[in-house]
Amino acid sequence: MEKGKNIKGAVLSGEAADVREEDVTSWKERLGDLCKGYDPKDIFNADETGLFFRTLPNRSLVVRTDSCKGGKQSKERITVFLAASAMGEKLKPLVIGKSANPRCFKGVNKTALGVQYEANKKAWMVSDLFRSWLKSLDRKFAAAGRNILMFIDNCLAHPTLDLEHVELVFLPPNTTSRLQPMDAGIIQAMKLRYRRRIVQHLLARIDQETPASELAKQVNVLDAIMWLTASWSEVQPTTIQKCFSHCGFAVEAPSSELDEPEFDELPAAESVLGDQTLPDYAAIDNELGTNETLSDDWENRIFQEARGEPDDHDDAVDASGDECDAEESTESTEVREVSGKEALSCISTLQQFTLQRGLSPMAMDVEKLGAFVNKLEAQRKEKLQQGTLDSWLQK
C-alpha cells in the first residue's frame, strides 16, 4: 500500500493562514480519484482539538486570543483526537493529558473509560503517539477485514507510515478550514455538547453557596473524559455526513442544518452564559495549540527522526504519574475507591429520586443498573468465599 497520496513535509498545518481558492478547487477536483476504490464507510478523517475542560463561560472573552498558547488557561487543557468515517462511524477518542496517572484515576479501570488515554507534559499530540495510534488502528481494521482511507492534516506530529490496512492522504497545507470534515463542524458538534454539560453541571449546583469558579476547579480529568465520551456518542451520523459532503466528498447527506443542542429545558442557562451564545462558548479553545510546529531547530529534528533517534521534544510525562510542576496540577480532588455496598446505596437513593419526580422510565434504567451491580458483588463474594475454602482445604 502507498505511504500517502500527498507528500508529507515539514510544513505547518496552517489553519489560521489565508486559504488559496485555487488550492481548494484543485483539491476537490482530485478528490474523486483519491477516493477511488473506497466506499464512503471506509473513508475517514481524523484531527486533534484542544479542550479547556473546566473553563467557565464568563472567562471565554479572555482566552480567545493568542494567550491560548500559554498562560494560566494552558494548565487546564487536554488534547482530544477524534476520527470518523464519511458515513458517520465514530472511532474511540484519544485523549492526551499531562499526567499519566491523575489522582482522579485511582481505583478506576481505564479500559472502561470509553477513550484511549495517553499523557505527556504538554498534553500534545506527538509523532510517536500518532504512530502508535495508527498501528493500533491498522490492527483493528485488519481483524475486521477492512481497508480504509484516512485523510489527515499536514503537520510535524503526523508522520507518514507504511501500513497494510490504513492508507494515509495528507490534506494540502493551509486548507484544513475548508477541506477537513472535522473542522467543518464535527469537532464543533462535540464541543457544543461538552459545553452544554458544563452549563448543566453549574445549574444543578447553582443553589449552593460555593462560587462558580470554585465549582469549576472541582472538575477533573475523569469528569472531562466522561462528559467527552457522552458528547461524542451524541454527535449524529447525519452531522458527520453533512460535514464530509460540505468538504467535497461524494456522500449523500441530508440538506438540513447541523444539529445543535438546545437549552429549552434549561431556562436558567442564560444566567450562566450571559451575553454569549453556546457556539461562541464552544469555540473558546479552537485556536489552542495541539501539536508541535516549526521551530528554530526543525531541520535537526527532521534528520533526527530520519535516523530513528528518540525525539527529546516528545515531553515524556514523569514516571511517577504526578504533574511535573506542582503549579500545573489540574487535579483538585482524589477519587477514592467506592465499595459495592456504597454503590448500591446510591443507586437506591437515585431510584427513589426518579420515582418521586415521576420519571418511571428512568427508574427502570436505574433498577437495571442496581441489578448489574448486585451481580458483580455476588460474583466478587463468591470468589472470596472460594478462595477462603481453597485455603482451608490446603491446610
Description:
With 395 residues, the protein is of the alpha/beta class. The protein has 2 domains: 21-282, 2-Layer Sandwich (Nucleotidyltransferase, domain 5), CATH 3.30.420; 340-394. The chain contains 13 helices and 6 strands. A 6-stranded mixed beta sheet has the order 4-3-2-1-5-6, with helices on one face. Helix 12 packs antiparallel against helix 13 (360-394). Mean pLDDT is 77; it is low at 1-16, 59-74, 312-316 and 318-332.
Q: What's this entry about, in short?
A:
With 395 residues, the chain is of the alpha/beta class. The chain is 40% helix and 9% strand. It has helices at residues 21-34, 60-63, 127-144, 176-179, 186-203, 212-217, 221-234, 237-246, 269-273, 278-282, 298-306, 340-356, 360-394, and strands at 43-52, 77-85, 94-97, 116-119, 148-152, 166-170.
